[in-house]
From TrEMBL:
This is FecR family protein. Residues 141-232 form the FecR protein domain. It comes from Luteimonas cucumeris. PANTHER family: PERIPLASMIC SIGNAL SENSOR AND SIGMA FACTOR ACTIVATOR FECR-RELATED, PROTEIN FECR. Pfam families: DUF4880, FecR.
């Protein structure tokens, strides 16, 4: 997987080649293939192309031309964007033999493309334009009840949304931020040391640069399951409370963050993976209270399991079950436990016998 810096350099090279006047149909076919290969390629290309176009307009103003008029490419007067006070054009006389070698036109154009975005950010005071340049993507994704949804992200990462979950994705040059607004999501993070991948939920953040982990939000509680790499769990400190320590979570860790602090259980990667069996359509229970097992099934189904009394709630269950098949789960309970089920249209009520 190419890094974001490598992708931007390739995008700049394509723009410089297209701008050089020797552009063929074959070149366009190759560019279209590169753009189609990845969303990150298209994002980088469009961002640099837009920054260059906006910079052209600003340079025109700096050259003293009327608004909306672009001078011929390569012909500028003194401008804060150029860093030079010479007037240059395409017919400038040849440099003396003693002059230092000049960079090739293609490399000069590539430098301009990289510099255009920075120049525009300094020149434009509008907060909206600044967000346009720095926020590559800001999109909300949601899954329905009983639906799993795979989301390819612009940086090459992937997010898998569990049932009835919602995230807000904001990608910038300095950070990849996911606001987990509801439910649970698993993230397969593309490596990019220069841009941390931050999953935020309320006052807590699970941060990585290239790893695989899941984050689940249950009201004020947060669960993080790490299956590869290391994740840093941070908590904002309220003004009236002691600072919360940062917790490092290696692969195999399952962390539960509540109002009382962070509880970490360390185990094998295989054990952590079992916590995420929902990705393949299963729920795994091991000596789990029936009340908790019922709550898990209810996250995926419109027909709810209702616990009828305290005795049935305390029963312990284990095994792997398809979360889409509530009726089979309830039938097994009736066969193996002192449980009686009353089936209604929108719910199944469990009682102890």
């Amino acid at each position: 997987m190419s890094s974001s810096k490598q992708i931007e350099r390739t995008a700049a090279a394509w723009l410089a080649q297209r701008d050089g006047g020797h552009w063929s149909d074959h070149d366009q076919v190759r560019l279209d293939a590169w753009l189609s290969a990845s969303t990150a390629h298209r994002v980088a290309f469009l961002r640099l192309e837009s920054a260059w176009q906006q910079s052209d307009r600003l340079k025109a103003l700096g050259a003293g031309l009327p608004a909306g008029t672009l001078p011929e490419r390569g012909q500028w007067t003194a401008s804060p964007f150029l860093g030079s006070r010479e007037v240059m054009n395409d017919t400038t006389r040849a440099a003396p033999a003693s002059a230092a070698p000049r960079a090739s036109p293609r490399s000069t154009r590539m430098g301009r493309y990289f510099g255009a975005a920075a120049a525009l950010a300094l020149a434009v005071s509008s907060a909206g334009m600044w967000r346009y340049l720095t926020a590559v993507e800001q999109t909300s994704y949601q899954s329905g009840l009983g639906e799993l949804r795979l989301i390819p992200l612009a940086d090459g990462s992937r997010a898998t949304l569990s049932s009835d979950s919602r995230i807000l994705v904001s990608m910038s040059r300095g950070e990849r931020r996911i606001d987990l607004q509801q439910g649970e999501a698993f993230f397969d993070v593309a490596k990019d040391p220069g841009r941390p991948f931050v999953v935020a939920a309320g006052a807590r953040r699970a941060i990585a640069v290239g790893t695989r982990y899941a984050v689940r939000r249950d009201a004020a509680n947060l669960r993080v399951v790490v299956t590869e790499g290391t994740v840093r769990l941070e908590t904002d400190t309220a003004p009236d409370r002691h600072p919360q320590p940062t917790t490092l979570l290696p692969a195999g860790s399952v962390a539960l963050a509540t109002s009382n602090g962070v509880l970490v259980r360390s185990g094998s990667v295989e054990e952590a993976e079992r916590q995420l069996n929902w990705r393949s359509g299963f729920l795994a229970f091991h000596d789990t209270p029936l009340s908790d097992a019922a709550a898990e099934f209810n996250r995926y189904n419109g027909r709810k399991i209702v616990i009828g009394d305290a005795r049935v709630a305390a029963l312990r269950v284990g095994g792997n079950f398809r979360w889409s098949n509530v009726d089979v789960f309830v039938r097994l309970l009736e066969q193996g436990f002192p449980v009686r089920a009353e089936h209604e249209d929108e719910r199944i009520v469990l009682y102890s016998q």
